[in-house]
Amino acid sequence: MSESLAAEFISYYNNLTQVNGTCRIFERNDKYCCYGIDAKLIAKVLSSVKLKLLEADGESLHYVSMTKGHFIEVLRHLLFIIQYKVKIMRNFGTGKNSNWKPVGEASPGNLTSVEDLLFDHNSYAMPQRGLLAVKITNESNEMVVGVTFCDPILREFQMCQFVDNPQLSTLQ
């Protein structure tokens, strides 16, 4: 990025209103970038990205750039784990005439604009769906069923235990 474009972008970014709980991700050709406070957050989430400094005209702005795979990982972390909103920005301008506009907004309760990225069945970024374990034991002449589910996206375990009959109709 040339110094004049960098200065223009830094000025544009500094004039944006910061919204708590929202992360702006800028789509740039084949990569995704975050700036300022958002970049520092992403650098904590992804140990594989390096926090860099964009400098022009005596001003500076921290940023990180990500591949599509990292972007999907960041989306999952922001939306599912720390419950952030995400705004994806794209430049519709050319050269010096930048025109950044939102092309997607997502929140933990509204994944419509990013669901293709998050839940693509052919995606290399989602190798697992989850793991389920069932254990059946006899305790005091009762059949006790224990069920555990491991969610790799949310990184949590869900467990339950209940009494069932020999036909396992409650489990079904």
TrEMBL record:
Domain DNA mismatch repair protein MutS-like N-terminal: 9-113
GO MF annotations in UniProt: ATP binding; mismatched DNA binding
Family annotation (InterPro entries): DNA_mismatch_repair_MutS-lik_N, DNA_mismatch_repair_MutS_N, MutS_con_dom_sf
Domain of life, per lineage: Eukaryota
Biological classification of the source: Eukaryota, Metazoa, Ecdysozoa, Arthropoda, Chelicerata
Signal peptide feature range: none
Gene that produces this protein: Msh2
GO BP term, pick one: mismatch repair
Name of the protein in its database record: DNA mismatch repair protein Msh2
Pfam families for this protein: MutS_I
